[in-house]
Design goal:
With 250 residues, the chain is an alpha/beta fold. It is built from eight helices and eleven strands. The strands form two sheets. Strands 3, 4, 5, 6, 7, 8, 9, 10 and 11 form a nine-stranded mixed β-sheet that branches. Helix 6 packs across helix 7. It comes from Shimia abyssi.
């Protein structure tokens, strides 16, 4: 392992996740992504850009027996994902690969769910991060359209693809989904009541025919402002982050 790491607790300590001390460090976004995936025991789940495995392992903590595969471009992060799987007693297959050039064996497989937390920032309109690991995770080198294309191709019929992304990228994400997935749903995530959504969860189904659904926004925190140095998550969000509860689509 060529990077210094720290070990952090997720789901109130049920998961212990080793991640780089410097570079991209998982926050609440992968936990929310995992909470929104409606997988069942025995179903096959692929995560594109799995990093150190936080989202996959949060999903496995809620749904025992899911069959996990992660794809990660950066070898150090992939090695940490394998370590985290072992340390948490979770079976997972991790492939070190560019999602735009998946290994042949993976291209022959299909999955009930594909999930992804693509890099948030279009570097044509933003500044690259100084840390290389963080830049790969946060700066969009592979176009968002390719993430959606690969996710759709790897889905089994009637399978679901779920993404978390910044709200301002929603038009790009929906444009990429158009013609590839149906039954599209959008769940906005607001920091506080009265604020614009900062993030969105977006789900589509392969072969889905249901009408587009824009759900009411999920408010993360109580109060109009952060009033004190203490946690202010709403009960339903606290249940997701601390207890591994499912995040309802309404």
């Amino acid at each position: 392992m060529s990077v210094k790491t720290t070990e952090n607790g997720y789901l109130d300590g049920r998961l212990r996740i080793s991640q780089p001390q410097r570079g991209y460090r998982a926050g609440v976004d992968p936990v929310l992504l995992a909470a929104s995936v409606t997988a069942k025991t025995g179903e096959r789940v692929l995560e594109l850009g799995c990093g150190v495995g936080t989202a996959m392992f949060c999903l496995a903590a809620r749904v025992p027996g899911v069959v996990l595969t992660g794809v990660e471009l950066q070898p150090d992060y992939a090695a940490l994902a394998e370590l985290n799987a072992e340390c948490n007693g979770i079976a997972a297959r991790i492939a070190v690969a560019d999602l735009a050039a998946l290994p042949g064996a993976l291209r022959q497989e299909s999955f009930d769910h594909v999930m992804a937390n693509p890099p948030y920032f279009d570097r044509a309109a933003s500044t690259a991060a100084a840390n290389a690991g963080r830049e790969v995770a946060m700066g969009e080198a592979t176009p968002l359209d390719k993430w959606v294309e690969v996710a759709a191709k790897r889905l089994a019929p009637k399978g679901y693809a779920t993404f978390i992304h910044r709200a301002e990228r929603l038009p790009d994400l929906l444009a990429s989904i158009s013609g590839r997935l149906g039954s599209v749903e959008v769940l906005p995530l607001q920091a506080r009541e009265g604020r614009e959504a900062g993030l969105v969860l977006v789900r589509g189904r392969k072969g889905g025919r249901a009408a587009f659904r824009l759900h009411s926004g999920v408010v993360m925190h109580d109060g109009a402002t952060h009033a004190a140095d203490q946690e202010s998550y709403r009960p339903e969000i606290r249940a997701v982050l601390r207890e591994g509860a499912e995040l309802s689509w309404g």
